[in-house]
Recover the amino acids of this structure.
């Protein structure tokens, strides 16, 4: 048994000390202690004993919180049923390594004596025995038959409940959210909003900035039930400073017109204009915009609904970011039976990804002045008018924010793209046109072309006039077959005409490798260098740069193999975009599963590959695999960086010996204001770790955390509603925090 | 003068040492001093200190003879101190109330309650005794007669009508004049010949674990890069920053745990350089870590964050500054000292001169005594004026 002291964090007065115990007085509702663990507790069973003597009042609802690395929250708590004989005893199964523990002794006024906390590791057998004995002492029944009956009647959750209710004992049940369906999870998010609103007392008055939001709808023969739901969702908003601007696009349905008239009569915040002729969606939306008096405009389709906290969340977001010009949220779909499903958890603003995927969607808020400057909607792009509009807006402003909450329900109906992507017809052509015009206006020498998935575009370069030189830098040691495969695939398959290969030999001593390198020395495209010092990935690559003559550097592992001829053309295309700092490729295992499609911050509390083991011919999460997108980092197994940017960040950091120097490089590049891109238009095989083995370096991990800890907590391109605690060998990433049925 | 210092904790806190030295120094120049503690009357001796002043519990003073108290000097405006000292002052007709500020109390409150603004702390939030009340602490400051501050930045919190007096820690110089047989202690602390020794004195808490982790990492990286280095560390870990202790090469780390106050100068003298890790931020900008004056008194080069005390020092002349405080920066400073040993020695010598000049016991005690006297004189004058008016 180990004994740990307690450090008071909050809410208690020290009255006196008696031989090591401390007499506390509590007059608050949330007193708590930090348990002084000198090292983390490993996963497994533990008995926790806290001697605590109540002197006045009562000890109620004591709780233990434990931190598995993501901080404290209500999902990881052990509520203690009651205290007996001046002791709290809990038998707990920690599902992972516990970094820290917090003890909340009570929620009511009281005085008590407490000294420390005792924690003992239990084997599974001992834990089971303790649980069984306590259940036995609680129940008068014969325990085993009782348990079997409970199991049969109520399942394992019933058995757990029985153990939980036995005094002294608590068996931790992992992750409340894991057991919630999507709708339950969504409801709990809205509840949290409601609570936040209540804490602010008056949701409108408590905000220092409470703009008038104009919600714009255009209607045309809307089914009355859906129209009612749509408008009701506006009327039910917890944020009250809104107006509703409706343009009816010459509905032939009297019922629709009459319904709109009645709404306008009942509530002065609702303004309706009736168009005499049908102008279709862009024209009609522009008509509705003429009614707008608000500083901000939100767009709502006539058959969709808002969550009740939609406007509240948007205004709350603006309190700390009121220089933004555009905000969008996450969304989900309304099923034909009225249930919610298929949430779309979006990344933060990703302009390159947006060119390939119409992901911004709903709920979209635009500052009126910016929308007006952009010229509002263009009827030439009806069917993709909101997408094309945002492309134009993004040319005026980059102050585009994202609220990672589902604030909009998109109705699934015949004719709606919510049901099937194709429903509107000719979408891709319009999408391509919109992006091509966007590229032209921005001077980007490329074009968009539909790929094999609906509503997905590949972004490709035009034929170039001038091909700047690329230096492909490859450290190597022995591994002749791999190196041969790599270099020959470059020489034979690379369409890009102007490159050199810089091979850095870090001490090959096998005859076939030496022979191969000597052969390469005779190739005018290849420069072979000797590096005699101790291997350090960063230093070796920096050394290679010192002998490279290109304007672009590609750092390439010797265990890669070119698949797509245009791999280098496509890397250069994106690297040429002014705000892009580095570009990575799609890397595949030999079995064609994904080995690398970008790195997410926060995995394993540092960073790791996302979509590992996904089928390479899949769309990924809403186009994240089939389309080029912004990411936080890419692997240095294949990464392109412009020479000027590489110099700006002083290259790879030499203190990393074997891993994470690529993540560090990308974060340094991002720190300078650039973005990192991962493109599936550049594809190579990667025979991962064959050449270097699995040499995960713990000090390198600690260094990355030391340098970037606050940045590593979340990833702007990986929605916070996905789990980060992904382990194991399966497919990594895009697992939501609720239970997927 | 009869002076009462009021602590918010017993003598096991860092603040207590600051008060201890001033109390002793004021006694040496002829004043009568009592230090009041809320509990732990014997804690002064328990930590190995030798007071020349008397110690009393709060209750002892409240019910004792108080008419002749001249100065009540409270250490922080924290609730436990505020309540007691207002009570005591009510019983002392002539006492001048002085509040000492040593931290950004609002920053501590915001961190504790997880808010960005003081105004976001709910009105009905209970404030425990070891914190300052977000509203009452300002009222407390407005009714005091004088304010002492540990760092100039804290004048931000002083009422406009009060001229604060900055008082730095004072050092018992005698403890730093030991003739040490280094070889004897080197063996005891497992220091090899040629090892570059860094010493860090202090516990690890949730509030400072990142800074200490950066230091440990810097030493681990130096060791990995082949630099012969040792970190002598005293203190206790109340927070696990290692993640997995077994994966750290323990070779460069000498963990001494809790050591007595007398042993600390020996450890400091063994070091080639001393370090206070950290970076300029809203917490460090307002404080003066109590160990730093002792570090400077050793005459060894000191590495510290470029804030608080460093603002009064010359970079790379009297001390070496950290701008970011991360492991790579610390490592670069270690490399600098290794490559420029003579410069390091000069920096240490200049740092010692700075310390002697600024942390001198008698000089600082006299300065504080003069401040007290000025307040008393001012009060007498005001009393005279109001009598004649």
């Amino acid at each position: 048994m180990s004994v740990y002291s307690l450090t008071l964090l909050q809410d208690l007065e020290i009255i006196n000390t008696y031989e090591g115990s401390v007499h506390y007085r509590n007059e608050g509702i949330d007193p708590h202690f930090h348990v002084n663990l000198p090292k983390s507790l490993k996963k497994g069973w533990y008995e926790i004993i806290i001697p605590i003597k109540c002197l006045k009042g009562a000890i109620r609802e004591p709780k233990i919180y434990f931190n598995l690395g993501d901080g404290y929250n209500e999902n990881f708590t052990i509520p203690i049923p009651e205290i007996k004989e001046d002791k709290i005893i809990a038998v707990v199964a920690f599902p992972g390594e516990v970094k820290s523990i917090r003890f909340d002794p009570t929620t009511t006024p009281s005085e008590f004596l407490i000294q420390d906390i005792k924690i003992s590791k239990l084997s599974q057998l001992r834990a089971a025995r303790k649980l069984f004995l306590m259940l036995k002492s609680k129940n008068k029944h014969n325990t085993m038959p009782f348990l079997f009956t409970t199991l049969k009647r109520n399942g394992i959750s019933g058995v757990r409940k029985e153990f939980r209710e036995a005094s002294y004992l608590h068996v931790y049940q992992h992750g409340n959210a894991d057991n919630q369906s999507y709708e339950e999870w969504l409801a709990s998010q809205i509840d949290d909003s409601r609570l936040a609103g209540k804490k602010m007392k008056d949701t409108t008055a408590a905000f220092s900035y409470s703009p008038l939001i104009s919600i714009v709808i255009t209607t045309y023969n809307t089914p009355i039930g859906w129209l009612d739901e749509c408008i009701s969702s506006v009327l039910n908003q917890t944020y009250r400073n809104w107006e509703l601007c409706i343009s009816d696009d010459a509905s032939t349905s009297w019922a629709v017109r009459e319904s709109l008239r009645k709404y306008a009569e009942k509530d002065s915040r609702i303004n309706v204009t009736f168009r005499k002729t049908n102008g279709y969606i862009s024209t009609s939306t522009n008509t509705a915009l003429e009614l707008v008096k608000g500083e901000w405009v939100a767009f709502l389709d006539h058959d969709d609904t808002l969550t009740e906290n939609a406007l509240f969340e948007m205004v709350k977001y603006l309190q700390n970011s009121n220089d933004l010009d555009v905000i969008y949220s996450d969304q989900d779909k309304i099923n034909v039976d009225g249930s919610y499903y298929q949430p779309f958890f979006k990344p933060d603003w990703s302009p390159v990804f947006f060119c390939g995927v119409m992901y911004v969607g709903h709920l979209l808020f635009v500052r009126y002045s910016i929308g007006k400057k952009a010229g509002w909607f263009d009827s030439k792009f009806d069917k993709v008018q909101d997408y094309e509009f945002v492309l134009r807006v993004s040319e005026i402003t980059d102050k585009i924010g994202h609220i990672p909450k589902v604030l909009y329900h998109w109705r699934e109906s015949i004719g709606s793209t919510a049901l099937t992507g194709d429903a509107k017809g000719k979408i891709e052509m319009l999408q391509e046109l919109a992006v091509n015009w966007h590229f032209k206006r921005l001077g980007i020498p490329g074009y968009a072309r539909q790929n094999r998935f609906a509503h997905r575009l590949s972004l490709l370069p035009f034929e170039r006039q001038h091909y700047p030189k690329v230096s492909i830098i490859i450290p190597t040691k022995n591994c002749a077959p791999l190196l041969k495969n790599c270099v020959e695939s470059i020489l034979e398959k690379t369409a890009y005409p102007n490159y050199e290969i810089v091979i850095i030999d870090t001490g090959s001593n096998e005859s076939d490798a030496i022979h191969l390198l000597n052969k390469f020395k005779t190739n005018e495209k290849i420069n072979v260098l000797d590096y005699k010092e101790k291997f350090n990935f960063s230093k070796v690559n920096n050394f290679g740069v010192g002998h490279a003559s290109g304007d672009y550097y590609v750092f390439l592992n010797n265990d890669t193999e070119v698949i797509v001829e245009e791999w280098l053309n496509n890397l250069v295309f994106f690297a040429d975009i002014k705000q892009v700092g580095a570009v990575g490729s799609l890397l595949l295992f030999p079995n064609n599963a994904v080995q690398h499609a970008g790195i997410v911050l926060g995995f394993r509390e540092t960073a790791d590959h996302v979509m590992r083991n996904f089928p390479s011919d899949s769309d990924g999460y809403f186009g994240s695999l089939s389309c080029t997108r912004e990411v936080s980092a890419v692997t240095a197994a294949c990464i392109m960086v412009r020479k000027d940017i590489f110099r700006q960040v002083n290259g790879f950091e030499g203190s990393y010996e074997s891993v994470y120097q690529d993540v560090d490089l990308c974060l340094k590049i991002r720190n300078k204001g650039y973005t990192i891109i991962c493109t599936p238009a550049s594809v190579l095989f990667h025979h991962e770790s064959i050449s270097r083995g699995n040499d995960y370096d713990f000090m390198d991990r600690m260094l990355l955390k030391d340098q970037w800890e606050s940045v590593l907590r979340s990833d702007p391109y990986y929605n916070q509603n996905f789990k980060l605690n992904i382990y194991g060998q399966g497919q990594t990433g895009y697992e939501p925090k609720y239970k997927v049925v | 003068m009869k002076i009462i210092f009021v602590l918010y904790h017993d003598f096991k806190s860092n603040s207590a040492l600051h008060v201890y030295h001033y109390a002793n120094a004021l006694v040496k120049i002829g004043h009568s001093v009592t230090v009041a503690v809320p509990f732990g009357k014997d804690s002064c001796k328990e930590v190995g200190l030798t007071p020349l002043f008397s110690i009393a519990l709060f209750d002892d003073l409240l019910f004792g003879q108080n008419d002749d108290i001249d100065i009540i000097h409270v250490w922080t405006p924290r609730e436990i101190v505020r309540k007691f000292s207002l009570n005591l002052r009510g019983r002392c007709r002539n006492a001048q109330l002085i509040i000492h500020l040593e931290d950004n109390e609002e920053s501590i409150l915001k961190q504790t309650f997880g808010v960005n603004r003081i105004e976001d702390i709910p009105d009905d939030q209970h404030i425990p005794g070891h914190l300052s009340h977000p509203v009452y602490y300002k009222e407390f400051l407005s009714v005091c007669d004088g304010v002492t501050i540990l760092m100039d930045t804290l004048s931000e919190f002083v009422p406009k009508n009060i001229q604060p007096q900055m008082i730095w820690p004072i050092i018992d110089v005698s403890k730093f004049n030991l003739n040490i047989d280094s070889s004897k202690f080197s063996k005891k602390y497992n220091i090899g010949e040629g090892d570059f020794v860094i010493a860090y004195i202090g516990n690890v808490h949730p509030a400072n674990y990142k800074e200490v982790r950066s230091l440990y990492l810097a030493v681990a990286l130096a060791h990995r890069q082949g630099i012969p280095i040792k970190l002598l560390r005293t203190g206790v870990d109340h927070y696990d920053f290692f993640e997995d202790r077994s994966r750290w090469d323990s070779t460069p780390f000498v963990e001494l745990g809790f050591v007595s106050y007398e042993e600390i100068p020996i450890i400091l003298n063994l070091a080639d350089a001393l370090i206070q890790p950290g970076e300029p931020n809203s917490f460090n900008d307002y404080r003066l870590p109590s160990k730093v004056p002792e570090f400077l008194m050793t005459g060894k080069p000191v590495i510290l964050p470029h804030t608080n005390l460093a603002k009064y020092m010359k970079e790379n002349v009297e001390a070496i500054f950290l701008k970011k405080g991360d492991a790579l920066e610390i490592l670069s400073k270690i490399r600098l000292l290794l490559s420029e040993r003579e410069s390091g020695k000069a920096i240490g010598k200049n740092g010692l001169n700075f310390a002697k000049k600024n942390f001198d016991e008698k000089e600082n005690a006299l300065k504080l005594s003069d401040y007290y006297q000025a307040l008393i004189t001012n009060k007498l004058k005001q009393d005279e004026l109001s009598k004649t008016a």
Remarks:
- Chain B has a mean pLDDT of 88.
- Chain B is about 40% helix and 15% strand.
- The CA atoms of residues 96 and 379 of chain B lie 8 Å apart.
- The two ends of chain B are 29 Å apart (CA to CA).
